[in-house]
């Protein structure tokens, strides 16, 4: 006797209504998935790009456009390059640009100090625990506090000149001598800010291949040779980043020290573009001229930054 298998209700109906997928449907789904994968990075970056455009690039373009307008009676009137001609004719602004050149020359020193300290800490030379414990302390101080402290230390009758007088060296007017004041302010700025660069260098050392240092030690390489042929090429990206950020900090973050320590003096010898911009905007009520000076400062930072990156890359390749 033949047994009859029961039919599950609805199964034949579903089978009857199912149709084969049309030709090329799988290919279209694959192309759609690949298109979504390609668009995903742009969708994720879109909010950040929008914020940069609205809060950075658009105000920058407005400032550049404003630099071609006039001040005072010519407020809002297009004046062409008159503001830039006035800047080049102003001895204070020319002095500020010369000081920018001085900062560029002193920039390797500002980068070498935290770089060497980070190297000593990484190689665990004697005293590295002391450096690790105190290096970041100046970075948490306000520039106003730092300036006030060094005003007391560097006063003509202050502790530093007293110590120098005790060893037979005559007193120096550290903040009143036009030939010395700018170097003093830059030195104070380096002391107050090198902690951040040191943190970046230590982060770079965390990615350094320790086997390279071991190989250099086995080959009998000295510390200078190890730094030049192993550490510098391995940390080239970190060094480039520190160079650029340190330069930007020296050109745009020294206002507090300048205001407290020298107020641009003596004889305008410590003027920097950012201090000049504040004078024109805040005291002289000339926003268009200040915008022109800001545009010049931006161009200078861009050119110097690109030149530094190019030179550093060439130096790393030669090393």
From TrEMBL:
SUPFAM superfamilies: MetI-like. It is a multi-pass membrane protein. PROSITE patterns: ABC_TM1. Belongs to the binding-protein-dependent transport system permease family. GO terms for cellular component: plasma membrane. It is found in: Cell membrane. Residues 1-32 are annotated as: Disordered. Residues 97-308 form the ABC transmembrane type-1 domain. Signal peptide: none annotated. It comes from Micromonospora carbonacea. Its main location: membrane. Keywords: Cell membrane, Membrane, Sugar transport, Transmembrane, Transmembrane helix, Transport. Pfam families: BPD_transp_1. This is Multiple sugar transport system permease protein.
């Amino acid at each position: 006797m033949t047994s009859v298998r029961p039919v599950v209700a609805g199964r034949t109906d579903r089978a009857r209504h199912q149709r084969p997928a049309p030709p090329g449907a799988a290919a279209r789904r694959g192309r759609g998935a690949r298109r979504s994968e390609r668009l995903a990075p742009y969708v994720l970056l879109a909010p950040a790009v929008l914020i940069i455009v609205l809060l950075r690039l658009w105000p920058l373009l407005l400032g550049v456009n404003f630099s071609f307008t006039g001040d005072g009676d010519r407020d809002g009137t297009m004046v062409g390059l008159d503001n830039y001609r006035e800047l080049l004719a102003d001895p204070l602004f020319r002095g500020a640009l010369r000081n920018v050149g001085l900062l560029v020359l002193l920039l390797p020193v500002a980068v070498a100090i935290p770089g060497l300290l980070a190297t000593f800490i990484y190689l665990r030379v004697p005293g590295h625990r002391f450096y690790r414990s105190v290096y970041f302390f100046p970075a948490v101080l306000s520039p106003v506090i730092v300036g006030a402290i060094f005003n007391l230390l560097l006063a003509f009758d202050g502790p530093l000149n007293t110590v120098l007088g005790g060893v037979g060296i005559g007193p120096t007017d550290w903040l009143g001598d036009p030939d010395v004041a700018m170097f003093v302010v830059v030195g104070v700025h380096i002391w107050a800010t090198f902690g951040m660069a040191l943190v970046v260098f230590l982060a770079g050392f965390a990615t350094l291949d320790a086997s390279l240092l071991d190989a250099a030690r086995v080959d009998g390489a000295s510390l200078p040779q190890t730094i030049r042929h192993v550490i510098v090429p391995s940390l080239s990206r970190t060094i480039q980043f520190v160079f650029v950020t340190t330069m930007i900090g020296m050109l745009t973050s020294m206002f507090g020290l300048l205001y407290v320590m020298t107020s641009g003096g003596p004889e305008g010898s410590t003027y920097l573009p950012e201090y000049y911009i504040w004078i024109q905007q805040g005291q002289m009520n000339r926003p268009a001229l200040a915008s022109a000076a800001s545009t010049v400062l931006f161009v200078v930072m861009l050119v110097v930054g690109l030149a530094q990156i190019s030179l550093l890359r060439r130096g790393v390749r030669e090393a």
